[in-house]
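#onboarding

Welcome to the new folks! Below is a worked example of what a typical request in this channel looks like: someone posts a single protein sequence, and someone else replies with the predicted structure as tokens. Don't worry about understanding the tokens yet, we'll cover that in week two.

Example request:
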Amino acid sequence: MIRAYKFLLRPTVRQAQALAEMLRDHCSLYNAALQERRDAYQHVSKSTVQYGMQSAQLKDVRAFDPERQGRWSFSSQQATLRRLDRAMQAFFRRVKSGETPGYPRFRGVNWFDTVDFPRDGDGCRWDSTPHDPVTRVRFQGVGHVKVHRHRPVPGRVKTISLKREGRKWFVVLSAELDQPKPLPATGSVVGIDLGIANFLADSGGVFVPNPHHGRRAAAKLQAAQQALSRFPRCKAGDRTGNHRRAVEKVAQLHGKVRRQRLDHAHRTALDLVRAHDVIAHEDLKIRNMSRAPAPKPDPARAGAFLPNGAAAKAGLNKSINDAGWGVFLMILHAKAESAGREVIAVDPRNTSRTCPECGHTAKENRPTQEKFHCIACGHIAHADTVAATNVLRAGLVRRYADPA
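Example response:
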């Protein structure tokens, strides 16, 4: 089992400068490799330049520019080229499937914030002893950097990543762990329904309120973004101190909202995993649910469009993104795997329109957002509880179905 751990770095002033130079040089390598692929795509052939060819050129690149490319880890530079290769493969995959392609773009210095080291000990080494209160990580070309290790890292460290978030530096480890001892069985099963009015409702009638972290911080974010918009567009080297502080203010507010969402998701998922052996949830396609509606051309007027509800859908999309369903489900699956619990995803269609008493399905069974009133048998309940009950039943049917 692979688990990731993220720790805050505490570099000195010179080490922070060297870490920034590492990101800058890897960004330059990424952009140069992308430019080579662009030229080949436009003038020679769409698949002339591959990862293997660019990786073979690294030795000459490092010898030609030893000050900027030669002092960093060879493996980390290969990882940067693999990162570009994955972006190109995703581009071609989207082209073949008919989706919006989105050709890979050049990265600015502030957009390139991660350097990967594929193996511990190759350009980067995690130095941690059980009884040493000070933990360090050694980066080639930088030295030993102190780490605020707030929790132990069991297992064997496999990969290491350097990440910059604003003015802070982090190290992200992926460690291979043995299968942990599962939690004691509770004999309880539950179905959950994710929503906006309530973040979560389960089949037992319990509701978890939606904290609306983004909505609560909207006023401060709006003020900070308005202050940032007063500065004219300028090059990175021409930005003033006030402009940089305005950018950092916006980033700090977004970072706080993100951490609040993560904390709420961890707490909610942990409560579910501790209390239930089997957890069923809807298999939501969040990207499709938060997609903007397609424009509707007016057949009577050329160049005009009919109302398509884009304004209302934009508000709904904002609420969906603020809830953070995708992050919560990812955390729930990870915690359930570590605890030996079972998580089942089921088809979400008609879960809130089907009566759990008589099985009648109709749109009219849900007259309002919260109320469920079956027009066949008269059953009345909260719509989210009904949906969670149907999700649980569908999950149990899928669990006990004959594989044949």
